[in-house]
């Protein structure tokens, strides 16, 4: 599998699982062992629904207004009844025929008629319109001059004119065959906007579909610094939810089938009566909106009707070179399978969740990291710093010799280009640099000879502030030959090697006084 780095801030994309799982890098940190945890709801089996539709799914929606031929007759009031009498009659009948309390099969239709009648008579404008045009002004099947369609509830700028293809109250322009009978301006408008008009009910978009997505799984993996530099593979054990092999995910025992939900009569919604003459529909909690349930005793035993079972799997994850501590890898489709049993619609589409591997990079005793660059501190002896030389520098590919300039100080830096980490997500590609910082090692203890040499060096450099304990230094004039008498061997050797004039003069005087005299003329005679 080929790894690729994605944005740190970007969330995981939800795509259909492919044959070969892809790995992508994201930021955030972790550490691998055998433990794995699941992201999502705590209860098992879990279900997350993802609707692939441009329009969002609403938890509540208003039901279609059911038209009534005679709203006065539906409420049992006269045409001269007051608003208070109409409201009182409506509340009494709505309570009597509400589907949640009245199990009569005709109660639902009766309640719809009562609701529609109250919607007309409770609105003074709609009531006046009904009194003027009659039931045809609010009947979708009505035609002719007064009204081409369903009253004033269309909600579309063009729906008030039936002749333009709407279902408004003014059908004289051809609601059912008048002027412009074959033109629907709402369809034209929706073609440009991609919407279903302005509140028109009953149409469903053909491309709307719902896909059940399983939960993601998260694990942690720890790798060494060199593994992060070179890339590696890790074998990870997880226990995801997998599709049940017995029922193939439908949650049913062999030879059984689903039945309609008794709580919502198979509609998937529950109707609730609300104050003010409105009814609202919400998703049925028994069937989770599917309209069907698995009857008791018909559940698949291995998965208990959920359609998924937990299985242990081993997955090999390729970790790319250059990965940083805190990044995470995503393996598409390696997470939990979606529960397509009792909590899902029959033959529902589904896809697995993803596996996220949080990567932690262990610290290295030699190297430190700054993005794609590697930092290394090289200790060099004092003499190498003073005299110059070379130093051995470790790299990701072995050891290299680097020249040390004369007079190198602690804190001096050099850069070895292209010897760092691989750059992830960079257009330039390649590797970072290895940045070396020198640190001069100062000896804490000196032997007698070492101290003597250093004190001699201090004398030669004119350092009068350095401490001297070996007695090789002198407060007398160094150009005075007497100051070079009885000096130590090392200092005498140093002065000889450096051709010190006073030291040479002292040697000449000493050789003249060693008892060997040149014969004079008298001796020759």
Characterize the structure shown.
It is found in: Mitochondrion. This protein has 525 residues and is α+β, with helices and mostly antiparallel strands. It has four domains: 3-56 and 212-258 and 294-360, Urease metallochaperone UreE, N-terminal domain (HSP40/DNAj peptide-binding domain); 64-193, Helix Hairpins (Orthogonal Bundle), CATH 1.10.287.110; 368-441, HSP40/DNAj peptide-binding domain; 448-512, no CATH class. The protein is 20% helix and 23% strand. It contains eleven helices and 24 strands. The protein has helices at residues 71-75, 83-97, 107-121, 124-133, 185-193, 225-230, 382-387, 448-460, 489-497, 501-512, 521-524, and strands spanning 3-5, 23-27, 36-39, 48-52, 60-62, 209-213, 216-223, 232-238, 241-243, 259-260, 269-274, 278-283, 292-293, 308-310, 313-319, 327-331, 349-351, 355-361, 368-370, 373-381, 389-395, 398-404, 413-416, 434-441. Strands 1-2-16-18-7-3 form a six-stranded mixed beta sheet. Strands 19-20-24-23 form a four-stranded mixed beta sheet. The protein has a three-stranded mixed beta sheet with strand order 4-6-17, with no helix packed on it. Helix 2 (83-97) runs antiparallel to helix 3. It is elongated, with a radius of gyration of 47 Å. The termini are far apart. The relative contact order is 0.11.
Throw out a few tags for this protein.
single chain; HSP40/DNAj peptide-binding domain; disordered N terminus; four-stranded mixed beta sheet; 525 residues; alpha+beta; 11 helices; Helix Hairpins; six-stranded mixed beta sheet
């Amino acid at each position: 599998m080929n790894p690729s780095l994605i944005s740190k801030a970007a969330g995981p994309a939800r795509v259909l699982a492919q044959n070969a799982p892809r790995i992508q890098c994201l930021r955030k940190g972790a550490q691998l062992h055998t433990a794995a945890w699941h992201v999502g709801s705590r209860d098992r089996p879990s279900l997350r629904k993802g609707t692939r539709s441009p329009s969002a799914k609403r938890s509540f929606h208003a039901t279609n207004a059911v038209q009534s031929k005679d709203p006065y007759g539906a409420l049992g009031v006269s045409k001269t009844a007051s608003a208070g009498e109409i409201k009182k009659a409506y509340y009494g009948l709505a309570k009597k025929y509400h589907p949640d309390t009245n199990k009569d099969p005709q109660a639902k239709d009766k309640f719809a008629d009562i609701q529609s009648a109250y919607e007309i008579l409770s609105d003074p404008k709609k009531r006046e319109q009904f009194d003027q045009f009659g039931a045809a002004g609010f009947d979708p099947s009505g035609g002719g001059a007064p009204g081409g369609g369903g009253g004033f509830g269309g909600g579309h700028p063009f729906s008030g004119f039936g002749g333009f293809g709407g279902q408004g109250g003014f059908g004289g322009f051809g609601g059912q065959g008048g002027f412009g009978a074959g033109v629907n301006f709402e369809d034209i408008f929706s073609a440009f906007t991609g919407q279903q008009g302005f509140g028109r009910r009953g149409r469903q978009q053909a491309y709307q579909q719902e896909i059940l997505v399983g939960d993601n799984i998260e694990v942690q993996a720890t790798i060494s610094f060199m593994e992060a530099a070179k890339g590696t593979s890790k074998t990870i054990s997880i226990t995801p939810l997998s599709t049940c092999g017995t029922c193939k995910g439908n949650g049913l025992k062999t030879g059984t089938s689903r039945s309609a939900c008794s709580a919502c009569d198979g509609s998937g919604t529950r109707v609730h009566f609300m104050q003010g003459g409105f009814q609202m529909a919400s998703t049925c909690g028994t069937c989770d909106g599917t309209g069907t349930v698995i009857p008791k005793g018909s559940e698949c035993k291995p998965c208990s009707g959920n359609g998924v079972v937990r299985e242990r799997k081993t997955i090999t994850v390729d970790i790319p070179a250059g990965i940083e501590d805190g990044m995470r890898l995503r393996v598409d489709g390696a997470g939990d399978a979606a529960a397509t049993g009792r909590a899902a619609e029959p033959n529902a589409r589904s896809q697995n969740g993803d596996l996220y591997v949080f990567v932690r990079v262990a610290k290295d005793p030699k190297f430190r990291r700054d993005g794609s660059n590697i930092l290394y501190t090289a200790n060099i002896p004092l003499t190498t710093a003073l005299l110059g030389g070379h130093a051995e520098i470790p790299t990701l590919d072995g050891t290299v010799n680097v020249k040390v300039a004369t007079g190198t100080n602690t804190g001096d830096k050099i850069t070895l280009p292209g010897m760092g980490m691989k750059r992830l997500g960079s257009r330039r590609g390649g590797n970072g640099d290895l940045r070396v910082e020198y640190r001069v090692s100062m000896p804490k203890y000196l032997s007698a000879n070492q101290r003597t040499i250093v004190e001699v060096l201090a004398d030669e450099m004119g350092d009068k502030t350095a401490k001297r304990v070996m007695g090789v230094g002198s407060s007398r004039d160094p150009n005075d030959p007497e100051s070079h008498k009885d000096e130590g061997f090392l200092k005498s050797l140093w002065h000889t090697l450096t051709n010190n004039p006073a030291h040479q003069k002292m040697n000449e005087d000493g050789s003249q006084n060693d008892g060997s005299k040149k014969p004079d003329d008298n001796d020759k005679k």
